Amino acid sequence: MKEFDYIIIGGGCAGLSLAYELDIHQKLKDKTLAIIEPRDEYKKDKTWSFWRVTPHNFDDCIKKSWGTFTINIPKNTKHVECLNTPYQTIDSGLFYQKIINKLKQNTNVNFFKSIREINTENSFVFNSVSDLEESKNNLWQHFSGIEIETNKDFFDDEIFNLMDFDCDQKDNVHFFYTLPFSKTKALIETTWISNLNDNSLKDYDKQLKNYIENKLKIKNYKINFKETGAIPLFHPKNIKKLNQMEIGTAGNMTRLSTGYTFLNIQEQSRYIRENIENITKTKIFSLDKKYQFLDNIFLKVLKNNPKKMAQIFYKMFNCPSNTVINFLSNRSSIYEDISIISKMPKWIFLKQLF
Ligand SMILES: Cc1cc2nc3c(=O)[nH]c(=O)nc-3n(C[C@H](O)[C@H](O)[C@H](O)COP(=O)(O)OP(=O)(O)OC[C@H]3O[C@@H](n4cnc5c(N)ncnc54)[C@H](O)[C@@H]3O)c2cc1C
Fold first, then answer.
1. 122 and 267 share a domain?
2. How confident is the model at residue 94 (pLDDT cuts 50, 70, 90)?
3. Which of 30, 45, 108, 350 has the fewest CB within 10 Å, making it most exposed?
4. Among candidates 244, 146, 141, 143, which has minimal Cα distance to 193?
5. Domain span holding position 106
6. CA of 11 to the centre of ligand 1 (A)
């Protein structure tokens, strides 16, 4: 069986981002890489969005960028600007195509369906397959979205809606999210934060139909694309192994309070590429410990006070937009952290510390 210098288990967002980063920086000129990916074909399966707080390799896969967004609670709407750090959406179809086309040109890179097809004894492994604990207490951000097309101009495509909490919360946290790609096309998602135990939250199609027809008042539309997913708001329990490093969701790249992962994956890939020559002795890349601490408190508050969360999210945006975006994108200074914390209901948060 064939041997490789590096193995990437899982050719999804993290696996392919890392392979691409290594390839374009000539780290695979004299080294071989095997990517283990069971899927039969790559096609668009997700849209990844984030505030562009740092450069990344995928500007040409951007479907749309926005400089303004809104957040709604019943009877109130806040407009927020993000011109310095635009919110971007990446089309996963374009992302996969770009990377696969590039990697195909490198004969040192090979794809396999199963790890059993290769000899792993002398390789360094980057693993992106998460070992997720099944516990009824764990929180998930679960959602379903449809990309719709209307026959008349309907959307203001300069402004996206980050969170519309003006909807049934069912004792959990629920909001709609709308990304208008043009005046006639938008992705509309229904998003819940819950422990996934209540099946009545999962009639996503009904929720979307009701929101589109009765809240947005769109009667005529067709559905071009659908995405459904669940992001764990807890860390996977992958066990540390010699000559192996976890990446992506498996490598704790998800911000637990928000589910944002894509840009963290890009930073992790850059870090690994910078240290690849000495990878066996390199420290694991991790998000700043302060966010783990703050996010854990935030999730405890969320679990115990779901009804208060819409107000809490809304109030957070009373801070200057740069401050909130830096905080949500793991870029905040201590002053910005304090500014965010000062907008939170203190007693509720303090109670979770003890
Ligand atoms: C629908 C959806 C939308 C999201 N939107 C956003 C967003 O807007 N912004 C954001 O920041 N984050 C978002 N996320 C979170 C995160 O960015 C994505 O989940 C991202 O794909 C994580 O990358 P990953 O490589 O860790 O996992 P994946 O991309 O899921 O890759 C894992 C890969 O491993 C493969 N695999 C599975 N089992 C095996 C096995 N046994 N052996 C080998 N390979 C295997 C899978 O086929 C897959 O290709 C979203 C997540 C989902 C599910």
1. yes
2. very high
3. 30
4. 141
5. 6-43+92-132+236-281
6. 9
